[in-house]
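Researcher: Please translate sequence to structure tokens.
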Amino acid sequence: MKWHHVQENWAAFYEAIMDKWPDADEAELDEVDGDQRAFVVYVAELTGQEPADARDEIREWLAGELPSDVVMDPRHDDQSIRLSGKYVPEGEDESDDDARFGDDG
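Model: Translation complete:
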């Protein structure tokens, strides 16, 4: 994942952050508010590391999967539907009824 995923969905990452850094505090995460530099400083202070080491630890954490709270966000579903439009034949809308495919009740 990229930092912009974290920044855009900051509150949805709280659980994942607290899983990785159990001493993290939700009120302090509110103050960080998705700012990457502030988060590096916060993790460095939280873990007693140098900022460079905290940055490396955060980079490793970012290599993981997006938390389900972020993946399940309706904005992502809507974006996926919009992107699927390029596979829909002309004259049909990506949100149209798909009964002819047998997957609607």
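Researcher: Any highlights?
Model: Helices lie at 3-8, 14-20, 26-32, 36-47, 51-62, 68-71, 74-84.
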